[in-house]
Structure formats: C-alpha cells, structure tokens
C-alpha cells in the first residue's frame, strides 16, 4: 500500500502515512489501485519484445495483432502493404516472402506462356490480386515473421536478446532496394522464359 500524496510505501493496516501524515485511503481502494498499476506494468512488459522487433509504428501493429485479433483471425487491412506490395515486404525485411511471391509469379508466367493464354492483361490481373492479398494479409504475414524471430531470440530463461530483436526486426531502406533488384531479376527471368518457350 502506498500514500497517494507522497508515494511512500506504508505498513499494512496503517491509517496515516508514516512519512507525511496524510490520511490513507481504505485498504480495498488502495489494493485495487495497486492491482490496476500492476496490470498496466504487466501489459507493457508483455508487448515490449514485440515493440523492440517492430520499432517503427509498433503501436499500430500491436493494436492490430492483439487488440483487434489479427493473430487469430488473420485478416485486416494494411494500406502500405496494398500500395507498395513487394517494396513493403522489403522495407519490413520479409525477404523469404519476396522470394516466395516471385517464385509463384514465375510459375504462373510459365503456365501462361506454355498454355498460350498469356496477355498483358494476365500480368495486370496477377498483380492486382497479389496486391489485394498483401493488403488483407500483410499484417498477419508480418505477425508470423515477428513471432518466428521472437522465438529465435528467446533465451533459456525466457528472456529475450534485445539486440537480436532490434537487428532482425525494424525497417530497412536497403530492403526496399533489395526488393527492387529481385523484381528486376524476376522480369529478366520471365522474359527469357517467354523467349525460350516461343523457340520450342
């Protein structure tokens, strides 16, 4: 129990503060206040590793993941992911996802080239569907990556390696450049694939 005026810790059952002499509130009220403070501290500690990982806009992602149920429901909306797509993935260091997406695009290109259904409209359709999916599932994709990195950064005693979280998380301008480079490589491979199939 603590004094509301000076903040000094009090003896159990005390009526007046031993430091400043102020009358203390009844035990039940004070206990409830202390419990509420403990809850706030506990909640802050619970989300701290996630904040260390996300860094920029951590409040937004924590709100989406835990308070709006994205971690369980999987769907929400992320405007940067929708508009920027591959580049947003690079910015958030989700390089494995970039490779997976570009691999899927190449597989779809090969199918379209081989079956003769390829048109410019096919590319636009694939891009539109992909970017809508980025918008819908972007927060969940990022949550899965954060969860994986937090698990990797957890020590045997249950604490987290703060430096590892900061290094593996956060944002990266170089990641955007990496995404651009991979997109160019994808375009080159796709064009070469198209030319190869035409010569068959």
Automatic annotation (TrEMBL):
Keywords: Membrane, Transmembrane, Transmembrane helix
Tagged with keyword Membrane: yes
Domain of life the protein comes from: Bacteria
Chain ranges passing through the membrane: 98-118, 124-143, 172-194
Name of a matching Pfam family: DUF2628
Designated name of the protein: Zinc-ribbon domain-containing protein
Source organism of this protein record: Halalkalibacillus sediminis
